[in-house]
Amino acid sequence: MLLPRPRIIYLVIGLLLTMVPTITIAQPTATLSGIITYREQITLPADALVTLQIAEVTAQGTGGRVIAEQTFSTGGAQPPFRFNLAYNPAIIDAGRVYTLQGRIQSGGRILFTTYTLIPVITGSAPRSDIQVVMTSVRGSSLPAAGSHLWLVGLALGLGGLGGLVHGIRYRRRAW
């Protein structure tokens, strides 16, 4: 039985479409780049992992969502480590604050972490040549980066800083 012409055309088009490779829509990317190091003279174990995250912080100083994350193995190498952390600039809100946070861990134990805020992306914050200086974690087991507890700790620090700035501004107006 012969198929009518329109059906043959639809069949051929359908076959061609299934043979064409899937087209992926590339999301625009931007990167943060810099160097990770720490001050202590400690040799990292061969199985050490470095994790970096870009996290959003709200204006009220509460923890926000993680925008991008990268984990890499040191493979026995020692710092300094160069990094290029890709993120999607379309999800960045110019009115928000973003911070770079990280940790180095081995055997499930965090050895080094970022305790200070490292502002990135928005405002006059850098996107390249970022110096990430981590601090040794001694005798404590910190929550994993990106967990709610880690972000809450970060938020409390920002909230305290925001309160201090607000207090200074309030006192200046009162004078």
Supply the key terms.
175 residues; eight-stranded mixed β-sheet; 2 helices; 8 strands; 24% helix; disordered C terminus
How would you describe this protein?
By secondary structure, the protein is α+β, with helices and mostly antiparallel strands. It is built from two helices and eight strands. It has helices spanning 5-19, 148-174; strands at residues 30-38, 49-57, 63-73, 81-87, 97-106, 109-113, 119-120, 130-136. Strands 1, 2, 3, 4, 5, 6, 7 and 8 form an eight-stranded mixed β-sheet that branches. It starts with a helix and ends with a helix.
Indicate the topology.
Elements: H1 5-19, E1 30-38, E2 49-57, E3 63-73, E4 81-87, E5 97-106, E6 109-113, E7 119-120, E8 130-136, H2 148-174
Parallel strand pairs: 1-8
Antiparallel strand pairs: 1-4, 2-3, 2-5, 5-6, 5-7, 6-8
Q: Considering DSSP H and I runs of 4 or more, what fraction of the residues is helical?
A: 10-25%
Number-wise, the strands total 8
Radius of gyration: 24 Å
Q: Structural class of the secondary structure composition?
A: alpha+beta
Helical segment count: 2
In angstroms, what separates the terminal alpha carbons?
96 Å
Shape: extended
